[in-house]
């Protein structure tokens, strides 16, 4: 069979590239004789790196031809069916689903977070996804929302496939970035652009300074989303009284190993937190999107976030920020043990995405 994968691929976002790598790896393991095509913003690079067919995602004629050749459309993973980014983005991803379903292809919403969606966003999803064969989502909130929009659709809660990501363990040498063997304990910070963050950059900087001054941490910012994340990181660094480091862009495997070797993570990026949980690295979350809050809920994570941007929480005072960081640091061992147990459960749930995909491919995915 031929699988066509639609997602936010080829843009250099390491979290989404981790998703794609896991999806391709699992498909190859489970279905070694099947073919894989990926809609990508960097089709030649995607094809070369993963040894798959790749179709330029903005070439409408090529996309139509890819849909015509496919047997199964896999829409995901990630947060594709939402209009917080833009209605145009939602229409693009939902339109791919509708085109495949209208062409008689088996279609699956795969490992997605659904929403936020306004009135018009819900109408788009309802219209375009009414003939989808089956769906898996990353959290219970998404499951409830999708069931309420698309009646009769088979929806299962699973978990993010990145819980299955296995980077080959390698020693991480950050000496070139000014982080030699003496830079222990190392704390990694992952931030990104988000509405409302500008007014709270000082809170993130305060947390970084507290980690450095009160707990002897060496702090480094890791831009998982490329140049845009580096730009936001620089804004925070300029507010800091301590001397955190901005790490250069790097490969997915290196980023995963940097997180694995850290003693703690402060994170906005969903996949920075998933990788931290995967390796048992305690974290302080900054939910910029409901999907980050949903991850913390699914992990039953006992530490409250630094602050929440969507929906916005009250901005913490300097004293409240210090108290949270101090409490976090004192509880790191217990938080690590909690994450290792919770992540093992979510790894099992992540596999369920691929079991459902097998059922869809074999004609067993209908309600």
3D structure, described in words:
The two termini are 22 Å apart. α4 (87-102) runs parallel beside α5 (119-128), α7 (201-215) packs across α8 and α10 crosses α13. The model has no long low-confidence stretch (mean pLDDT 95). This protein folds into 2 domains: 2-157, Glycogen Phosphorylase B (Rossmann fold); 175-345, 3-Layer(aba) Sandwich (Rossmann fold). The protein is an alpha/beta fold and 367 residues long. It is globular and about 60 Å long. It has 13 helices and 12 strands. It has a 7-stranded parallel sheet, sandwiched between helices.
Global structural class:
alpha/beta
CATH architecture classification name of the largest domain: 3-Layer(aba) Sandwich
- Outline type: globular
Supply the number of structural domains: 2
The strand count comes to 12
Q: How large is the share of residues in beta strands?
A: 5-15%
Helix fraction?
40-55%
Query: Overall mean pLDDT score?
Result: 95
The major sheet is characterized as: 7 strands, parallel
Q: Provide a count of the helices.
A: 13
CATH topology of the largest domain: Rossmann fold
Q: What's the CATH H-level superfamily name of the largest domain?
A: Glycogen Phosphorylase B
Keywords:
2 domains, seven-stranded parallel sheet, 367 residues, five-stranded parallel sheet, Rossmann fold, 13 helices, alpha/beta
In short:
The protein has 367 residues and is an alpha/beta fold.
Write the layout of secondary structure elements.
Blueprint: E1 2-6, H1 14-30, E2 35-40, H2 43-50, E3 53-56, H3 60-69, E4 72-78, H4 87-102, E5 106-112, H5 119-128, E6 134-137, H6 140-149, E7 155-157, E8 186-190, H7 201-215, E9 218-221, H8 227-239, E10 245-246, H9 252-261, E11 264-267, H10 270-278, E12 283-285, H11 290-298, H12 318-330, H13 332-361
Parallel strand pairs: 1-2, 1-4, 2-3, 4-5, 5-6, 6-7, 8-9, 8-11, 9-10, 11-12
């Amino acid at each position: 069979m031929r699988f066509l994968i639609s997602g936010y691929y080829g843009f250099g976002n390491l979290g989404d590239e981790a998703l794609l790598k896991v999806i391709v790896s699992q498909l190859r393991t489970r279905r070694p004789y099947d073919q894989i095509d990926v809609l990508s913003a960097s089709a030649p690079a995607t094809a070369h790196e993963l040894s798959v067919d790749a179709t330029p995602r903005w070439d409408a004629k090529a996309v139509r031809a890819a849909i015509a050749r496919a047997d199964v459309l896999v829409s995901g993973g990630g947060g594709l069916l939402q209009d917080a980014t833009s209605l145009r983005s939602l229409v693009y991803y939902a339109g791919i689903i509708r085109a495949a379903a209208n062409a008689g292809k088996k279609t699956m919403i795969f490992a997605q977070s659904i929403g936020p969606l306004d009135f018009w966003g819900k109408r788009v999803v309802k219209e375009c996804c009414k003939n989808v064969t089956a769906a898996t989502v990353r959290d219970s909130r998404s499951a409830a929302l999708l069931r309420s929009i698309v009646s009769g659709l088979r929806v299962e809660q699973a978990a993010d496939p990145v819980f299955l990501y296995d980077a080959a363990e390698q020693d991480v040498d950050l000496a070139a970035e000014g982080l030699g063997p003496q830079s222990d304990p190392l704390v990694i910070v992952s931030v990104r652009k988000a509405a409302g963050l500008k007014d709270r950059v000082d809170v993130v900087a305060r947390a970084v300074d507290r980690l450095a001054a009160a707990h002897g941490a060496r702090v480094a910012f890791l831009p998982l989303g490329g140049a845009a994340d580096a730009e936001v990181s620089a804004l925070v660094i300029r507010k800091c009284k301590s001397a955190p480091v901005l790490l250069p862009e790097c490969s997915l495997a290196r980023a995963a190993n940097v997180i694995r070797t850290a003693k703690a993570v402060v994170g906005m990026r969903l996949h920075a937190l998933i990788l931290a949980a995967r390796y048992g690295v305690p974290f302080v979350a900054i939910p910029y999107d409901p999907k980050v809050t949903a991850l913390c809920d699914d992990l039953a994570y006992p530490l409250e976030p630094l602050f929440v941007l969507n929906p916005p929480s009250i901005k913490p005072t300097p004293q409240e920020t210090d108290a949270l960081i101090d409490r976090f640091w004192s509880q790191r061992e217990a938080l690590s043990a909690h994450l290792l147990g919770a992540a093992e459960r979510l790894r099992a749930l992540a596999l369920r995405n691929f079991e459902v995909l097998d059922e869809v491919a074999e004609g067993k995915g209908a309600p």
